[in-house]
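Hi there. Long-time user, first ticket. I'm pasting a complex I've been working with (about 595 residues overall). I'd like to know whether the download I got is complete or cut off, because the file seemed smaller than I expected. Thanks.
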Amino acid sequence: MTKSLSDLKAVHYIHVNEEVCNGCVLCMKACPTKAIRVKEARVAVIDDGMCIDCGECIRVCPRGALTAIMGKSDMGDLSDHFTSVSASTVLYSQFEEGILPNDILLGLKRMGFSYVHDQTYTNEMFNVAVELFIKEHRKKDDASFPLISPVCPVVVKLIAYRFPSLLKNIPPLMTPREIVARESKLRLAARHDCPETDIKVVHITPCPSKMICIKEPVFQEHSYLDEAVALSNIYEDLKKNIQDVDEDIVLHHSGGIGLGWGMSGGEITGLDLNCLAVPGLQETIRYLEKVEMGLLNNIDYIEFRTCAEGCLGGPYTVADKYQAKHNLQKLIHMFGVEKRVKYSYVKKLYDKGWFFTDKSPISWERKLPQLTSSDISKGIERQNRVEEILRLLPRKECGACGCPDCRTFVEDVVEGKNSLQGCVFWESQKKKLRIGDNKVPAHIREDLPESD
Amino acid sequence: MANLKKRFEIKARDFVRAGEVSIEVQSLLKTIGFRANDVRRAAVCAYEAEMNVVMHGGDGVLELTVDPKNIVMDFTDDGPGIDNIDLALQEGFSTATPEYREMGFGAGMGLPNIKNHADSLEIHSKKGEGIHLRISFIVSDGP
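Hi, the file is complete. Here it is re-exported in full:
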C-alpha cells in the first residue's frame, strides 16, 4: 500500500464543532503552519493538507470547539477479546504522591484490560538502540547528523511537510510505543494460540496526534497499535480503580531513566552522547531551521517535543504540567538513574533488526511533489506580486480578514482564494493611495477610484 | 526570465537578531519553490556571511537576486575590510577576537565554508574600505 500526499490530505483528525465555534481568531493565530482560516467571521476551517495535528488550536480555544478524533473513552465490554493496554509514561505523573507506577498499572488491569504492558523498560532499550545506531553510523560516516528523535509524531509530520530535506535525519527506528504493541501481539497470540489480529492494543496518551499516526503512519506499513485513548478521558475511571489495590503483582520493572520520558529531556537522560532536548513548537521550528542550515552537525541526537515541557504538557493531560514534572522527578529520584537493561541483550536484538521500521523515513520524501524550473518561475512571479501588494497594506496584522497575518492574506489573494476587499483597512488605504502613487500594480489599480 | 530582488539590512554587533536574515532568505527561497539542496547551500552561505558582517563589518546590506537558474547574494558592509584575501580563505585562519571565540565563533571556517557550498565566490575588499562579497549559485536541474 503506498500513500501519497493527497491521500494524507483527505484525512480529518482535528474537528471544528461549527455549533460551538464563534469565529474568533485565537486558533488561527496559534496555528504554527497557518492551516486555519476563519470564514465569514463565523467559523474556523482547517486545511487538512497543512495541518500537522499539533493540537495548539485545541489548547487555545476558549469554547472547546476543537477536538481531535480519538478512540472511544468508554471501553465497553473488554471480555470478548484480548485487549492489551500500554500507556505513555505521562500517566505516572498525573496522580498525587504515594501512587506508584505499579499501582497505576494494576488499576488499568482492574479496569478490564486483559494485559497491561509497562512501556518504560522498552524506553530504556530504545535508548541503547539509538546509541548503537549513532555509533555505527558515525563510524561509517553515512548518516546525516544531528539525528532527530522519531518519538514525537507532530515533529515527524512537521518535518515531512515543512522540512522534507531533514527526513534523512530521522533514524529508521521504531518508537517504544510501537515496539510494545508489536511484542504484545506476538506474545499474546502465541500464548492464546490465536491470530495476532485477535489481540487489540490500546495506547493511553496525552497527545491528540497519536490516533493519526496509528491510522496513517509515515514510516511504517501499518501501526501495531489499534486505538489511542485520551488520558483525560479514562482518568476518573482509572482513579477509582487504583483505590485500595492490594494485589501483590509486580508489573513495573524499569528504573528512573525510562520513567522520565514524559518530560522534556527525559528521552536523552539515558544517552551517553552529545544531545539536545528542545521542547515547544516555536522552538522546535527554530531549531529545525538551524539543523537545515547545517549549524548543529556536531550534535548527535535531538529530542524534539512540540508540547511545552514535553509530553506532560500535552492537551489531554489532567494534572498541571509543572506539578506533573515535579511528580516525575520524584519518581525518577526514587527509582534511580542506573541502567537496568542488559547492553549485550539489546545489542543482539539490534543486530537482528528488532528495532527497525519496515519503511525508511526517506521513502516518504519521494512522494512529495517535485518542483520544476517553470514552477520556480511561477514562484518568483507569485512572490513579487505578494511583495507588491503587501507594500500597499497598513500591516496591522489584525486577523479580521480571517487569515492569520497580512502576508498570508496577500498570498491567499494572489492565489485567488480571497479578495483585497477582505481587508478591513483596504477602503481607507485606497483613498490614501490615490494621492499620486503610481506604485500600485495595474491589476489592483482597476480596483481604485478614478483619479481626477 | 522572471526575477526577484530583495534587500535585507544587517546590523553590526546585534547578536539578538543575528541569523534572522539568513533564516528569512531560507524561508523565502523555500516558498518560491527552490529545491531543498539549493536552499540549504544558500542558507549556509547566507548565515556565514551574515555573521561576518555582524562580527567584523560595520552595518551591512544583503541584496538577494533570484531567477529560475541563479541565486545571487551580494553582501556589502562598511567595516574594516580584509587585509589579505588569500589568507582569509585558508581554513583555520581567523581574526576573531577572544570575545567571539568564547561565543563559539572563530574556527576560521566562515569564508572557506562559503567557498565550499557556493558555485562561485567573489571578494572585493581593501583594508579600511569595507567588503563586497558576491556569492552565486547555479540552480540544480531536474527533480
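A couple of notes from our side: The longest strand of chain B covers residues 70-77. Chain B touches chain A through 29 residues (CB under 8 Å).
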